[in-house]
Amino acid sequence: MATWQGAMDHRGFHQGSFNSFQSSSSDEDLMDIPGTAMDFSMRDDVPPLDGEIEENRSYNGGGIGSSNRMMDFLEEPIPGVGTYDDFNTIDWVREKSRDRDRHREITNKSKESTWALIHSVSDAFSGWLLMLLIGLLSGSLAGLIDISAHWMTDLKEGICTSGIWFNHEHCCWNSKHVTFENRDKCPEWNSWSQLIISTNEGAFAYIVNYFMYVLWALLFAFLAVSLVKVFAPYACGSGIPEIKTILSGFIIRGYLGKWTLMIKTITLVLAVSSGLSLGKEGPLVHVACCCGNILCHCFNKYRKNEAKRREVLSAAAAAGVSVAFGAPIGGVLFSLEEVSYYFPLKTLWRSFFAALVAAFTLRSINPFGNSRLVLFYVEFHTPWHLFELVPFILLGIFGGLWGALFIRTNIAWCRKRKTTQLGKYPVVEVLVVTAITAILAFPNEYTRVSTSELISELFNDCGLLDSSKLCDYENRFNTSKAGELPDRPAGVGVYSAMWQLALTLILKIVITIFTFGMKIPSGLFIPSMAVGAIAGRLLGVGMEQLAYYHHDWAIFNSWCSQGADCITPGLYAMVGAAACLGGVTRMTVSLVVIMFELTGGLEYIVPLMAAAMTSKWVADALGREGIYDAHIRLNGYPFLEAKEEFAHKTLAMDVMKPRRNDPLLTVLTQDSMTVEDVETIISETTYSGFPVVVSRESQRLVGFVLRRDLIISIENARKKQDGVVSTSIIYFTEHSPPVPPYTPPTLKLRNILDLSPFTVTDLTPMEIVVDIFRKLGLRQCLVTHNGRLLGIITKKDVLKHIAQMANQDPDSILFN
Fold first, then answer.
1. Which residues form the signal peptide (predicted)?
2. pLDDT tens digits for 139-179?
3. What 3-state DSSP class applies to 250?
4. Gap between the Cα atoms of 201 and 631, Å rounded
5. Residue 455's Cα: distance from chain center in Å?
6. Which CATH class is domain 652-806?
7. Do residues 729 and 737 touch, judged by C-beta distance below 8 A?
8. CATH T-level assignment (fold) for domain 133-365
């Protein structure tokens, strides 16, 4: 299928590969393409002869000095050569090859001296040290965000007079004048009406509290959107679509930088505290990846290699989910299932370690004061019954329908934001949505509290001492088993809570559509879980009352006797939360693991699995994309989805450039072009690289050179090599011919030439080409016919072709 004839026709194929920064050695970690015949001639690492090396020494001193110094060009390169421009895709094969060469050199040197051996050991240990630092920093920042967000959320309702730094809960914990029944009321905690007008009773006090709640919400939202707009535009959104794109090999400079980390951490606290329908879990993955990227700069192995850095970012994403949900194993599975493009076994172990350290750090900080990593831990362990799978599957159907509805409406709104004047006023949009949310939220106690606290209350099972309206049951029993309450008839408080929860459900469904995607940090996990938890709790209470009043029905009488604890509404809330989150994100395995780690409900794995799978099936039937993939497509990111199958019968010649009536392919010749000729081609085109051929007549392929490397090498030669002028001939050959006297010196650029570009024939089926691009992470692939160059296929061409085959706009595949 794949042919390497163009490179192998030349005698210097083996030796030249060592002079290039891209070795042609096999990339076994990345390559798994059944049915393709590929020649990896360099597998035995045949060293070049010393004489040939001396002849190959280039103008910039980057040549190889001896057979044992194959890395000189990589260790002392021209600054910038081998790096990438912003909004470009990395060359995975080249990066992996460079890392293997670096590792091979360190291993060889380790046998020569003790110092080299120590360096080899420290190099091997550096990855684990980096994971330790990422875990510590991610856990610390997550603890800081949790504590700050909890305090600022309570600040909208009042302040603690005994210590301004205490939130409502901690303020009353320290009070000596609090009763168990009224444990959320203590003299040390004063509402704003008490501070301003010295009373908490009456209509005027309610209006004062209402006004202060909305005012604080608007202030927090305004600060968040202003900081993002002025200092770090990349700090908005959840960050997961962009991280998926970056992990697939795309470069977005600054997206994981220190300013983004700083602003995202601050504005995430402000956004969550404003009461908007968003969560901090998705943005915490972005925060953790920022930590990983910044810490990579402390280690040469990761700073200089983009592929190795992406392995670190995969592990950092796992640490982010670990601290977001207190779910270290779920974090590793989330990184594997949802965000990572390349996930070798070594990354799996390191992700596990990073997630472990991050969770341990957060547990040490104990942000919730309950010795748990999360707010949602459940205490009930009531067994579920087989018949209950029916309502669990109904919740899965609801979750799938909600997920498909949310994705379609949210993408439509975000597209409207991009294509109309609305996108030019992000501050106004945020303030309007915040004002509407706060005004509608305050009258309802279930929308007034933070979404995390709401989910915690919905997951909770009612005990005798619970004072919540959700637990206002009529106690008509004499005895019960220890620690177990029988099903009871609902009281007035439960019916009131049901109406309020129904209104909360409608508000959350509608307002989340407009909130996700605004220019502030906004996660989707918590709002999606809240929608599902409310629906689940409503269904759970309905089932509980049905079982109580009709326990003699055939569906109940075999397992639910009068006075027994048959139905657990909190379990239905858990299952509903999993179903809705699965419907939006299309996660399955990682979702179930996150949910049982989140709640501690290990015995509820089967209900969670049934709901998650049903939700995915229903949502996939209505639309194949999850919310993150939909936002990737909306933004035009060059992301090649590995999960989708390409089933069309097209050939490489149908996709390659140039087409039949297009201008000829822009190429460079190996030994007949001047510096001026090359600079003219560079200035007149915008291509990322150029094929190099023997001559324009033969069109026999020699290799491929990147535009960035070409520009940097010519500029460097003009500065450092005497006599290089516009008429100097550029040679990509192994041997340059004798130069006649009184002619400008030649410029030898064989070192920047990739002598083993990936090639396919013109009759290669596109399904194989697409598979090759996915498995190898290629930037471009050259198309040949009988060894002669015909054209080129880039990653963007592949994406446009896939979009065209799916009856979508191919021009949407442009980074916006």
1. none
2. 999 999 999 999 999 898 888 888 888 888 878 876 676 66
3. strand
4. 47
5. 24
6. alpha beta
7. no
8. Clc chloride channel (1.10.3080)
